[in-house]
TrEMBL record, chain B:
It is a multi-pass membrane protein. It is found in: Membrane. One of its GO terms (cellular component) is membrane. The keyword Cytoplasm does not apply. The gene is CNIH3. This is Cornichon family AMPA receptor auxiliary protein 3.
Amino acid sequence: MSAPAGLPPRPAAAAAAFSPGGPGSSLEAAAPGSGAPRCQNGPMQSQMQFPSGYGSHLPNYSAPSGHYSQVPNKAAASHLDNQYRASYYPGYYSAPAQNVMTSVGSNVLNAQESHQLYNNTPPHSGGSSDRPVQGAVSSASYLHVSAQQSYSAFDNHYSTSVSSSVASQGFPLNSDHYAMPVVSGAMYPNVSYPPVAAGVVYGQTFTSQSLPAVGQFKETNAFSSQSTSVPHSLQQHVPVGYNTTLSTVSSAQAVQDNLSRNLTGSVPKVNNQINTGGIDSSQPVHSVSQNVPFTKPGAGTSAASAVMSSVRSPAPSLSSKPPSSPSVTQSPELALQEALDSSSTTSSASPVLNNYDALEGGGYPETRSVTSSPVPSPSVLQTSKASKPFGYGYPALQPGYQNATPPTPVQPSNPGHHSGFQHYAQQYPGVSQLSSSLGGLSLQHSQQPESLRPVNLTHDRNILPVSSVPAPVPNLNSDLRKLNCSPDSFRCTLTNIPQTQALLNKAKLPLGLLLHPFRDLTQLPVITSSTIVRCRSCRTYINPFVSFIDQRRWKCNLCYRVNDVPEEFMYNPLTRSYGEPHKRPEVQNSTVEFIASSDYMLRPPQPAVYLFVLDVSHNAVEAGYLTILCQSLLENLDKLPGDSRTRIGFITFDSTVQFYNLQEGLSQPQMLIVSDIDDIFLPTPDSLLVNLHESKELIKDLLNALPNMFTNTRETHSALGPALQAAFKLMSPTGGRISVFQTQLPSLGAGLLHSREDPNQRSSTKVVQHLGPATDFYKKLALDCSGQQTAVDLFLLSSQYSDLASLACMSKYSAGCIYYYPSFHRSHNPAQAEKLQKDLKRYLTRKIGFEAVMRIRCTKGLSIHTFHGNFFVRSTDLLSLANVNPDAGFAVQMSIEESLTDTSLVCFQTALLYTSSKGERRIRVHTLCLPVVSSLSDVYAGADVQAVVCLLANMAVDRSVSSSLADARDALVNAVVDSLAAYMSTASNLQQSMLIAPNSLKLFPLYILALLKQKAFRTGTSTRLDDRVYAMCQMKSQPLVHLMKMIHPNLYRIDKLTDESTIHVNDRVVPQPPLQKLSAEKLTREGAFLMDCGSIFYLWIGKNCDNNFIKDVLGYPNYASVPQKMTQLPEVDAPSSERTRSFISWLRDSRPLSPVLQVIKDENPAKTDFFQHLIEDRTEAAFSYYEFLLNIQQQICK
Amino acid sequence: MAFTFAAFCYMLSLVLCAALIFFAIWHIIAFDELRTDFKSPIDQCNPLVLPEYSIHSLFCIMFLCAQEWLTLGLNVPLLFYHLWRYFRCPADSSELAYDPPAVMNADTLSYCQKEAWCKLAFYLLSFFYYLYCMIYTLVSS
């Protein structure tokens, strides 16, 4: 990734060419010192994102510039490289700050000043000054939506609006979140945005936006002159700092005359938008911020005060909102984890990128759905003409502007680090707009993109990125890109879809989608509307990628049918304007949630019903899980998702089945024993499932009593089957969730199982048998449950073989989830006990959706042929999910049935219809748009290696069950061999003697090797059958992020954590040690290493590890005194301890199930577990990474 | 002109073959309904699979007894296919010859549809073949 230093000629020239009125701006680009301001641009901009006091965080501002000093080089490299790249990567960033820039951009155009150094900074001050307003508005909307609190928050909205919104949502207030951009800067330093171009485009955006409204050039001029003046004033203080808005005001007053006319013009508009701001937070926010720069200077003028007052008065306008009118609310969809996750950002009060997320998963910003603002839509209109195959035909566009921009992308592009700069880019929608106005596709063939750079696998030893692997960004034009769905929810294995099946076959890569549809989101536009606009023929929901033929008609992007825009859709609740269907939130966000009407119900929405089926045989009592479960339930009883109708019930079983009558009015819970397990019946028809709120005391009594009720049991049998049948009978009238806790092989009644595992075969290299179910009982039961909207979740806590392969069926086909705690014992195995406790906390409190169905639609020509995950396939594209939980992932394989030659874009849409725990019927829609390519190299360029590996893992699980494990392993190896061979044959200039992979696939062999050494697929190493089956179940049902950690853990060296390259989260400094290769060569006896395996952390301490580290971090005087079973780090008041703990808790916060920490000393028995994860090393049974590469090379040459 | 056992076999086959044709058409319709989403795969509990298999094996046994080697030879491949299907189907449930969770995978579904069409064609052809054979045996002997 080395890049030539100095400024590239290209962007400068491009910038010059771009700026219609801007000698100043081109000067800026060419100026030698422009690197610094440019660099600052990013971080500063991002800081704007965080609406809170700016004054107190000056220190942070200095940091970014340091990190950014290298930026120009990298950007230069990419520019030099080519335009392809520029179009290839980044820029889907939409722009919260866009409107801010609008004014500033035009000022750059017209300023003609020698303020080169500053002319990209005004946006900051502008941003900083108006962000708070934004925060206030959004908080207002939240208040309105959720809490109906007072709007007093606005009084101090400049500093505390965020906190007010935060408080209303129950978030912790994170005062230090600004630090995030700094970090991202540190981690992805090679990003820069030529500000000039940005400015130019902003001007463009601005005019194009205002023109449809007002109409003519004169107005444009007025606006630009106005904005010209504002920046002057802003520029004055920019160098000073960003802490004051007052100075802005004073200086701006000089320009007041100039402004006043325009101000009055803009005020009504502001009013408008702000008022509606209460209804939708994200969008009006932008519009507000757009105008705020004008209002500030005029703080003393009547016009400005009018604006201000309108800012403060969303409440009345809200309350006056007609109930029937379609309203859009930005509801905080948070669950615990995500809240933590995004705590680094403004906790969802305003459309802020989830920087944390971007860092952690290498993903896109969480809030992409929100980032689209009303402003992009003009740009969409504008650009789509050039780039979209089916044009937007809006007459209000200004072709002149569009044509004025020469076709040069000034987009910085940096393939390796896309995720890093999206937030910067987000500030520069104009930048991306440039390239989009050119039509991104026209740039494709100029040069080779970074992701196609050949990597010699056998020579390049360090292919792991420093931090996490980012998701590739589809090669779309930037509007589409920024509208596109977050890769965390929706990922495709090939971000460039091949045109024909033949091409796909040639590439030898699987085509499929990886979905995480019900993920906890911090931000989600929720739309209440009486009509949900859908295509009349394919029933696709309207989405950002449809094209509007005119005001009255839209063309479906999946089936190309032309539909009418319903009358109601013409009214935009955000702007309260009529006739702007393209600005509706449905068309601005690729992830939206609709509140569905009764058309979407087959029956009234069901209440939340939870049934616990508990094993109380001797084995279970001995293991002691009941204590933990009852404790967790007692703690979380009030947090169970649900409304006043929530019902709960308990069944216990050993050789008989016991029911508990918890009917309100009883003095104590009543146990009813049914011993006729061959023909199970319910002893009383009702009062077994009782209302949680009405019978809370009885439930608590029962939970307190349960752990001790069976202490003296001698019953060793387990009649799981009959208990499940009873549970099904109990649940079938309503549907809901059955949680089954099982500790041994079911031995009585229907569904009894026999031990099938031969312990001597555990490490066999040959055939692994019994991966499939022994009986259909559990599958049939699951299907019955699924039909009655009941999901069965299985907690298997066993010390011996329990035939998970058969038991898992009850969850697999009923859309449940499976947890497995091998050798669970409350006191002997504290690590597992702790894990169960944490898992239960998450399990009981996470969001849940009932009676759900998920439909996946794709553009005509593509067809879905296989699904992976826990569900029941109801129809060719419809999954029936009795329950849906935020931790469930799905995978889909696709094929190309018809050639896609007549289209340049394909879209995928998942719609998840579910009943929320509050009894609302909701539809969550994700839409992903990807380009179609015709050449093989483009297909490789767009390969998403993580998605490919996860899909292959899913396919391999299927293969090992239906055929054999050996087959599955061969298929995995063949997948690498075939795809690399196919790649090498396309690149003719490569030497055949080397093993070459495109940059996008350089981690492919490593991940496949990791898969082969994973518990699910490994041979030769002793693996218990249940462990293997559990690993397979996980592969099928985990979302991509978690699965990747399971396949390829992250290894960090943590004994020498420094404060360098840290990020700030929640007032904490989090060190960011680089990723280490999973190889023993990286381990030294002097060090301490942390391995993050997703569900467990191993902390390996070397023998000669620094005593200071052991003392400070572990709290023991020396290595010898560190105990064997240590699962927690003590809180020692030392910097190294603090750093380590903050790093570990940061890692923990990034996932829903908080992993257990296990400290490993050299002679610890758990050592083998740790070393088994060092997948690059050789074991007795498996290749080392290098040997594996040689093996692949050999097979390719054959 | 004699009413031999073979002739009886063919007459019975003729009637039963009509039933098989009906089953095949029923399958085709069922799969089509599945594809077009009119029906839940859970309801697709293949009640006709087992009767179909048993009727067909009855044919084979009858032709074996009647020593109609050619006819038997024509039917043996399908008999083996049925046996293979029957024993390959999951675990202990014979009525799940079409596995509901798997049947909706596009691959499986199109395979099942093709299978149903092929069977329909085969049964139709054999219907006329039995008709011809019946008349032939009745006339020749």
